[in-house]
Design brief:
The chain has about 50 residues and is mostly helical. A two-stranded antiparallel sheet has the order 1-2. It is elongated and about 35 Å long. The two termini are about 25 Å apart.
Length: about 50
C-alpha cells in the first residue's frame, strides 16, 4: 500500500514522497515523487534503498 511504501522510503532511503491516496482512491497503490534534488542526492537515496 502507498502509506507503507511512503514510510519505507522515509526510513530507509531518507526520501519524502506523497501517498497516492492524497490524490484520490485511484492512487492507493501509487506514490507521488517530486524529483527536485541534484543527481548526487538522488543517487544517494537509490544507494540506500539498494536500487541501481
Amino acid at each position: 500500500d502507498a502509506w507503507a511504501f511512503t514510510e519505507k522510503l522515509a526510513r530507509e532511503g531518507g526520501a519524502l514522497v506523497s501517498p497516492g491516496d492524497f490524490y484520490g482512491t485511484g492512487g492507493s497503490r501509487h506514490v507521488r515523487v517530486a524529483v527536485v534534488q541534484p543527481d548526487a542526492k538522488l543517487r544517494l537515496v537509490a544507494d540506500r534503498l539498494g536500487v541501481t
